[in-house]
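Retro notes
What went well: the complex prediction finally ran end to end.
Inputs used:
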Amino acid sequence: MRRLSAVLLALIAAFALGGVALHRHEPINALWIVTAAVCIYLLGYRFYAAWICSRVLLVDGSRATPAERLSNGRDFVPTPRVIVFGHHFAAIAGPGPLVGPTLAAQFGYLPGTLWILVGAVLGGCVQDMTILLLSTRRDGRSLGQMARDELGPLAGIAALIGTLSILIVLVAVLGLVVVNAMKHSPWATSTVSATIPVAVLVGLYLRLWRPGRVLEGSLLGVALVLLAVLGGGWLDQQSTLRAWFDYAAVPLAAAIMVYAWIAAILPVWLLLAPRDYLSTFLKLGTVLLLAIAIVVNHPTLKMPAVTQFIDGSGPLFGGKLFPFVFITIACGAISGFHALVSSGTTPKLISNEADVRLVGYGSMALESFVAIMAMIAATLLDPGVFFAINSGPGVVGASAELATHTISSWGFPVSAPQMQALAQSMGERTLFARTGGAPSLAVGMASIFGHTFGRGLLALWYHFAIMFEAVFILTTLDAGTRVGRFILQDLLGHVWQPLGRTSWYPSVLFASTLVVAGWGYFLYVGVIDPNGGVNILWPLFGIANQMLAAIALSVATGIIIKSGRVRYALVTAVPLAWLALVTTSAAWQKLTSADVRIGLLAAASDLAAKQAAGILTAAQAAVAPQLIFNQRLDAALTVLFTAILWLVIFDTLRVCVRRLRGLPVRGGCEAPYVPRRLEAALGAPP
Amino acid sequence: MRRLRRQLARTWAALRCASGDDAYERYLAHQRYHHPHAAPLSARAFYAEAQQRKWGGVSRCC
């Protein structure tokens, strides 16, 4: 029976993939992609994940997990696997899988979709599951600790610095996405601002009035936030009120920096924790809603399978299909950041080692499916509209006529009146040059939701989608700044001991300011960049995220080889080799390409030459020095990321070669085997 | 009818467990079972400690 269902799954997957492949030159229905994706995840889960668990990781259901051995009723709590799955999915799913596929849609729907599927099933899911098991076997140690214990102090420090830099770049690029969604949009700005007092109210409710009643607090908060979306629409009609929330990009960026700085030093219960509850509820609800809407509405994708921009001339970001599609879509295919969640929090909840397949592999497959839905939402738009929303004024021209003319000349017809009508139906003045992916995703989501749940509410759905993405992003911003602060304090503590104390206020203020200044700088430069900023920051984020994934896979490969099962190390070594290839070639092109849309140094020199020749407009000349400096700084960061990547790979190779030659290697820190006594009847006190 | 009610109760319990709504009750059960003579934390103190712990490290992703 099981074999029969597997054969059936494989047949459906082949049929759906064949459908996707054969419809290359005509519009394709989204259901083909959804079907192929679901079948591929199920096959990967049923066969590949099960094989890895039994042969490579030697998952042992009779072995007690740290949740059982160290059970303390607080962080080590044996929890039913479906609930751990929910927790883990909520923790790994962020705005990344929504933004990346939207940007990669400039290549057409096919390249990104294939990479999301293949990357997740063979790479991302494997990484998450492997790190989850390895950390479970090591009492829930973090990735950095495992790198230090298993490979050596060098890899440990590399992992720490890698984590800090990815946080800085991540928060900057996400801040940019929110700013671009809110600039000159009183509706979006007022709604997003309203989420702050709502979160504080929920925080007070959970702290003072009904301690720990998370469900009540969250439902109250979600209801208030939905009211805020309606209220924003009303406010948008009032001429005096709307002026209060109508800002250009630079003041909005400054406001976000001030907000994040305050959020990082406030106690967690007041802002961060309640905001996180809100965003988790909204996230799960919206993802479910989107899945239902896509199936009910089964839209036709209007974007071609592959566009001419695979040659590197894309308007969203420059660079050829290889390697840039693999850098642009990190979350959704393989994301190093997940290794930080898979080690640390989740392993302390796992009640049975066998659960890692559902929790690690399954959660990532679901996250990958979210990325597929984002790809569908981006490619169901008219391609002309998609490019008009996502292209910066530096690429297509600053006026509506110029922009639509440029985009139409690429073979994607769009007109200024069409964009005007669209903006009006979404309750906005303009949708041109809203780079960053969030607004075009919101337009896509609004049109599916509008089709499925009522057409007259497009503007409401659009702003609901914007609010949903912004709440998500602000949560990551708060949490990222805070974690960045902890890591920085940890590093600074080595320089001067008092700076390492996480509760000493001068140190808290100092480290928070440094972290906010770090990402605030990149955010500011991104905002003033006439090409939209995202074209520089997102690839940098992709490189950083893949670097972290490579560190995680190195740790996993090293541990598998040390255990003596050399042949099976290919399971993690192949994705590692692929990431090393992709990341290094992307970094190489960012550094050496003579094309000013790709090469950071070429762009800096080009701008410097133009400035010296005096052919820039006054507005361009005003921001030129900052842009030149920033591009050189980004080049230096790219070098740093690549250096860290290869340092860790060589350290892993060193350990592996020593092990293969029979020389002594670090012992590792796997906890000894203790038989499992916990019965299936979870929920009863352990 | 009774089966429906039991099903609803089970769903509600799972929802509370998933959201962390019942964390304090689970902690009390743990304390009663393993440390019956120690005084447990109050709901407020437990919740404050849980939050501090949860957001003290990487708990959310990109």
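What we learned: Confidence is low (pLDDT under 50) at residues 680-686 of chain A.
What to try next: split runs per interface for comparison.
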